Amino acid sequence: MPQAGDFELATVSVPEPGPGEVLVRNVYMSVDPYMRGRMYDRPSYVPPFQLGQPLEGGAVGRVIASNGGPFAVGDAVLGTQGWREHFVSDGRGLRKIDPEAAPMSAYLGALGMPGLTAYVGLLEIAALAPGETVFVSGAAGAVGSVACQIAKAMGCRVVASAGSAEKVAWLEREAGVDAAFDYKAAGPGTRGLVAALAERAPDGIDVYFDNVGGEHLEAALDRLNLRGRVALCGMIAQYNDAAPPTGPRNLALAIGKQLTLRGFIVSRFAREFTPRFVADMARWVGEGRMRWTETIVDGIDRAPEAFLGLFRGDNLGKMLVRVGPEA
Amino acid sequence: MPQAGDFELATVSVPEPGPGEVLVRNVYMSVDPYMRGRMYDRPSYVPPFQLGQPLEGGAVGRVIASNGGPFAVGDAVLGTQGWREHFVSDGRGLRKIDPEAAPMSAYLGALGMPGLTAYVGLLEIAALAPGETVFVSGAAGAVGSVACQIAKAMGCRVVASAGSAEKVAWLEREAGVDAAFDYKAAGPGTRGLVAALAERAPDGIDVYFDNVGGEHLEAALDRLNLRGRVALCGMIAQYNDAAPPTGPRNLALAIGKQLTLRGFIVSRFAREFTPRFVADMARWVGEGRMRWTETIVDGIDRAPEAFLGLFRGDNLGKMLVRVGPEA
After folding, report:
1. Whole-prediction pTM
2. Chain A contacts of B255, Cβ < 8 Å?
3. Which of A303, B14, B42, B211 is the most exposed place for a label (fewest CB within 10 A)?
4. Strands (E), chain A
5. DSSP B68
6. Complex confidence, ipTM
């Protein structure tokens, strides 16, 4: 587990935007579990962070100066240069967003990468069909909470697990899941989770959206129906393990049950799925079927704290750091 | 691990075939790893064997009497009533085979269910494409040896593991794999297997055909390339485990590498794939691309020994029990 002291807050001077460039003041920056993987020095689907260099991540901000750049002063933009208050850009990797259509922060959550992750995971990776029963772990997080509501909007039965009574209450009251449970209050180990699932989905589950790994995955394998699918989205339970975690001891069940487990990275699907995602989400938001909540930490100096809080489950909904005012 | 004493050889009288029935004398019966699963009293894709009742399994035999039944005396037939010398049948579940086209025993191996398992696993489950690199474990067995040769016929690079120097030699000399290794002679544990794979497939593997589970699966996950696929066919390494086995500790790699692991049961695909399988196999046999070998144990009294030998790796190629003469 990283410590706050592993992070350094550096004060540097921001250059003037050169010709064709803009200066952006960040408003919200995202902290996401996947960033933990970039803190190992190893080859992966995104390169590791470098010591002494700024971290990166999703952020929304305002253009505050332009030297003939591709955006106007006042424009709200979404990009990947979080973990800083200001930056200069030629516009590559930046996309203009509409703060009238949705709050700026939502473009980092339900309407952004986490929402698209839920969408791709359910529709493409797990091939979810109406009427099926879905189990979502980490269900009160940025991805999980959207996954629950997409599944509900598709006419599925949703069982959700989260790590506190408050989260469970939010899932039942706001996200509209059919049943939610506090996994910390279930019986011990995989057996406790299996019992919690069996009680809430007595006919088994057809799809498991895995944000957690570990015992959750094992319990889901136990309860999956014939030809069930697992979308392997994240395994936050083990990102900080010093020793190799135990794998699912019952993976052999996948043979007889003809299960499919499929890992995915949302970026690969972004181009193909974003248009449908945006259209579907706009409709679901308009119909009142899609709600989200955020846990906002103020000040870039507290960004490490917000990030580390993800692994303690401090967040209800999307965890964000507000690094400046919206307007 | 079952013991020979867990089996009983019962002598019963065989009834005369009734109207519309035939009497079949079995020639070869199959012993297969999947039968171990039917020795647990639990729900599964095939019902458990019952104490005091004859076991079942693939067998080929000769019709020796017919009372207006659907086959003629002398016909060779394939069915599922193995583990016995004779049986009476109304023909349901029996299929006439042509012993001129291929040896009777081959209908229980390369040209039968094990061969179809290899075919479906590679083509449908793993979506193997020409030019890819495939790793097959348990490669000298009935399924693995066909999988290796189908992959070669498709223009793939094949790395194979087996449990003895004799099997490795057969794979290299007869099955024509690009590289084979004796997993018992690799370094210890998953690390030894990873090193063996890295040496023989330095650019990684695209498809893993898993007959073994355990450390083999873990090593394959380590060496799989981006968007690699695993056909989960069998996990013979752990069928007799008294305690739950350890699962693959590195399953989280499936996320970043976007891997798909898919379990399957060949029976689900038999109807759809058998015509293509038969046509492709006939062509490959004709082209000299498909070879097989058998380990034949004589006498139904030695059937338990043959079955138990599967878990010790006693067989090179298909393990069969000869319960009577061919003609």
Report:
1. 0.94
2. 232-235, 263-265
3. B42
4. 21-30, 59-67, 76-79, 86-89, 95-97, 133-136, 157-162, 179-182, 205-210, 224-232, 260-263, 294-298, 318-322
5. B
6. 0.93
